[in-house]
Amino acid sequence: MQADGATPADSLDTAVLRALCARHGDAPERLIEILHDLQELAGHVPEAALPVIAEALNLGRAEVHGVASFYHDFRRAPAGPVVVRLCRAEACQARGALALIDEALEQRGAALGETAADGVTLEAVYCLGNCALGPAGTVNGRLHGRLGADRLERLVAEAFAEEEAR
Amino acid sequence: MTVTLWLPGDSAAASVGADAVAAALLNEAASRGLELRLRRNGSRGLFWLEPLLEVETPAGRIAYGPVAADDVPGLLDRGLLEGAGHPLCQGPTEEIPYLKDQERLTFARVGVIEPLDLAGYEAQGGLAGLRRALALTPAEIVDAVTDSGLRGRGGAGFPAGIKWRTVLEQPAGPDGGSKYVCCNADEGDSGTFADRLLIEGDPFLLIEGLAIAGLATGAGQGFVYLRSEYPRAIEVLKRAICVMEQAGWLGDDLGGSGRTFRLEVRRGAGAYICGEESAMLESLEGRRGTVRAKPPIPAVAGLFGRPTLVNNVLTLAAVPTILARGAAFYRDFGQGRSRGTQAFQLAGNVRRGGLVEKAFGVSLRALIEDFGGGTASGRPFRAAQLGGPLGAYVGAAQLDTAMDYESVAAAGGLLGHGGIVVFDDTVDMARMARFAFEFCEIESCGKCTPCRIGAVRGKEALERILGDRDLARNLALVEELCELMADGSLCAMGGLTPMPVLSALRLFPEDFGRAPAAAAE
């Protein structure tokens, strides 16, 4: 969804955003749902979209900015074609998650939250509810358990192949 | 004859290859000309056996696990469809000791039926609680909940009946009745997965519990605040709501009673703090998930300022059983002031991780050793964290603690949502204490200073301790900060972060550069 086929943020025109808000009845209490939909459409929540949403919902720009920046889910910049989210909460730590994360980062010379040269965006997540099957993580939204370095890299390669096929 | 096979479609099983096993089974069956029916249930919660494949035989369901896609041809060769022996065969599912030794009330149907099969749900006792509730007055429903001794399963353990009665007694709004029921399904605690397991495996039970809560409190609208990390649970619950609407168990004429109860799912957005009830209400109103000062309590002024019942998934899911089988039946499980069953969740470094529903009072040792089989690594057990990231660590000396609200509190911990995260002897408890502060730093809503700043300073002090710098001063600083956070924070985020920190420091001082705790302690 975050891939090349996604709508470039800058060209997300006002009409599309307004339609998106209208689908939620322009209801301010549905702002989080609207931002989720926007991120699914555009791959991230572009800054330029916020004033349009604010106007449609009759909210202040600061309020919309406040919500978009409060929740960890909302990405303010585009991610790479493959997004890997690895759990670093206690239960996964007990199964060696931190070493797994370090290895994935080191191999790519990137830090958490960054997009590496190979196009993988590696993010931390705190609990995916798969705590008996750790280390757990997601690759492009799909949940995986009993992760090790080799399996993770295989899943990343599969995700790239899938992206290419699309 | 067509043979029926069951394979979980829930996200835990899928995370270890269940969908690939399903594809392999269907392919192999097609090429061999076998007639089989593959049904997708929820997970039984025996996660070390996932993907757990079951075959229906005249002698009941026979389990095989953990099955990989590559195992499928061999399994079929050796008589899978007849339930024949195989190294992966676990025997009759219901006879697996881990399952047989449980007392499953809330989770009785999970893994047994297809999650969206309403007829199957009813055949297994579903809807009996709601039917019973429809024949009672709101006050009678509340009485049943009160008499059952049910306490909030989200962590605080507040008596559910008192909360329900408070909402019932609030006057309806000028529009004739805008009260709300909000289900907190923001299960963000590491080591917990029971809400997800239930919603993906038996969503009708939660909906039934919510509908009963609506009838009892006079609320016409319910919300389920479900975390975005659980996309499959969101999808299953939304579909289950449609099925219940079509069957007339939600909507304007609930079960033909003329009463209205509508239900909507709202996605979270990755903020742990939204598991705190007032932050959840803010989020449901479309705002930043910052906590509200109390009073007023949500039961008086909650969502949009209206009287609101906020309960955890497992609290609401216990209610249909209480209505269907009576308050006394439920109350007979458990001990002391902890009545009924608790969904214990074994996670982390444990050999047999999964869900264990037992009456309150089972010992921690029985859970970790008998059910869990000890550590997954085979190394000695060192610590377990009870009740999520804000819960205390315990060591081997606490293993005989009875798992009920009061006993765990007496041992210096919190039962919380029933999560148990196991660590072996390679764990560095000073690092876990540092992580507790770090987690609080990342997830603090920022509203109150003790939490927002205390977490950062605490993490820094622990880093100096880990670097062996100025030990005495930094340890004193950590203890002082913890006292301040516990006393001065607005909610449990800052207020309970000291729990894991101080319990680690007390039980494992050697990891913090102090002398080991005396054996007598």
Automatic annotation (TrEMBL), chain A:
InterPro entries per the UniProt record, alphabetical: NADP_DH_HndA-like, NuoE-like, NuoE_N, Thioredoxin-like_sf
Coiled coil: none
Keyword list, A-Z: 2Fe-2S, Iron, Iron-sulfur, Metal-binding
Annotated TM spans: none
Pfam families named in the record: 2Fe-2S_thioredx
Gene3D superfamilies: Glutaredoxin, NADH-quinone oxidoreductase subunit E
Binding residues annotated for [2Fe-2S] cluster, in chain numbering: 87, 92, 127, 131
Reported cofactor(s): [2Fe-2S] cluster
UniProt GO molecular function: 2 iron, 2 sulfur cluster binding; metal ion binding; oxidoreductase activity
Superkingdom of origin: Bacteria
Manner of cofactor binding, per the entry note: Binds 1 [2Fe-2S] cluster.
Signal peptide residues on this chain, from the entry's feature table: none
Similarity-based family: Belongs to the complex I 24 kDa subunit family.
Protein name: Formate dehydrogenase gamma subunit
Species whose genome carries this gene: Tistlia consotensis USBA 355
UniProtKB/TrEMBL annotation, chain B:
SMART domains noted in UniProt: NADH_4Fe-4S (SM00928)
TM spans (from-to): none
Cofactor(s) it depends on: [4Fe-4S] cluster; FMN
InterPro entries: NADH-UbQ_OxRdtase_51kDa_CS, Nuo51_FMN-bd, Nuo51_FMN-bd_sf, Nuop51_4Fe4S-bd, Nuop51_4Fe4S-bd_sf, Thioredoxin-like_sf
Pfam families referenced in this protein's UniProt entry, alphabetically: Complex1_51K, NADH_4Fe-4S
Domain of life: Bacteria
GO MF, one example: metal ion binding
Key words of the record: 4Fe-4S, Iron, Iron-sulfur, Metal-binding
Region forming the signal peptide: none
Domain NADH-ubiquinone oxidoreductase 51kDa subunit iron-sulphur binding: 430-475
Family: Belongs to the complex I 51 kDa subunit family.
Name this polypeptide is given: Formate dehydrogenase beta subunit
Annotated source species: Tistlia consotensis USBA 355
